[in-house]
Amino acid sequence: MTEKRVHLSRTEPAAYAALDAFSKTVNEICKANGIDDRLKELVLIHCSQLNGCAFCVRIHVDRAVAAGVDLDTLTQLPAWRESGVFSERECAALELAEAFTFISEDGIPDDVYNRVGSVFTEKEYAALSWACVSINSFNRIVIAGRYPVPPRASK
Which among 140, 120, 149 has a CA at the least distance from the CA of 16? Predict the structure, then answer.
């Protein structure tokens, strides 16, 4: 993917700044409503994986590691349903992340809403939902612009 595309954040920086401010508000909501950085970053990574957004995966893997997520957990994320490393809260959050990412298919199905709602409070559910809305927005900007993800320099 070497074709140069319009870089939305540079072409219309005011809109990107508004989205960035929205993201900061969402982070504050997560903190205030009991969603720790570990759980939030797992959700953001998973949405980005599902969307195929390597740029955002890299950013949020780095943030997840800083929040204490270990390598084994990160490698199990794409197969979370078959893995035993995730807590009930993490599984519910990842299921909600999938529903939001693929919202055009079935909306938020009642069974998912009820299962997730049995694990999270209304405030926690709202915080995670806003996190999903935020990262899915960033994913679309980055994917449309084909933001590069070069190999990291060797240490």
Answer: 140
Per cent of the chain over pLDDT 70 is 97
Q: Tell me, what's the pLDDT at 7?
A: 86
- Say what the pTM is: 0.93
Question: What pLDDT, on the 0 to 100 scale, is given for residue 1?
Answer: 47
* Averaged pLDDT of the chain: 95
HEC-encoded secondary structure of the chain: CCCCCCCHHHHCHHHHHHHHHHHHHHHHHHHHCCCCHHHHHHHHHHHHHHHCCHHHHHHHHHHHHHCCCCHHHHHHHHHHHHCCCCCHHHHHHHHHHHHHHCHHHHCCCHHHHHHHHCCCCHHHHHHHHHHHHHHHHHHHHHHHHCCCCCCCCCC
Cα 42 to Cα 104: distance, rounded to the nearest angstrom:
22
Which residue has tokens 């679309």?
140
Burial class (CB in 10 A: 0-12, 13-18, 19+), 131: buried
